[in-house]
Amino acid sequence: MVPEIQTRYVFTITARIAEVTSAGDIGSGVRRIIPIIGGEVRGEGINGKVLPFGADFQIIRPNELIELEAKYAFETDDGAVVYVENRGIRFGPVDLLQKLKRGEPVDPKLIYFRTVPKFETGAENYRWLMQHIFIASAARHADRVVIDVHQVL
């Protein structure tokens, strides 16, 4: 018998972002780099601040599918530093994705934005973050990305 997959919500990462830098069309899409400049982590047993460094490295494919890979860190209220690598995709109607690119508001329910965050830390009380798989649902806003992280049980 194979265990059934279930998830449970654990915390929300709100990453504040700065202006987008574009490296232009690289042949397979447009490379964009979005600096992560701070934010917060709030949830069950984990609270802290997103550290003001790191970035989201994206490729926007010709059909507007966005492949993303964010690398950054957060510090918990009790002093542990947690490194985050978050890979995922964002996709939806082209007109709505173009509105998001311009910084205009779009209902997050209309955009498919899912990620697989991976965590690393030497802090003993947060080692469980390295011993489980996580999935996340996210929403892009003009000045931040909000990521609801769920543990796969």
From TrEMBL:
Gene3D superfamilies: 2.40.160.20. HAMAP family: UPF0311 (MF_00775). It comes from the Bacteria. It comes from Bradyrhizobium ivorense. InterPro entries: UPF0311. Belongs to the UPF0311 family. It holds the Pfam family DUF3237. This is UPF0311 protein CI1B_50810.
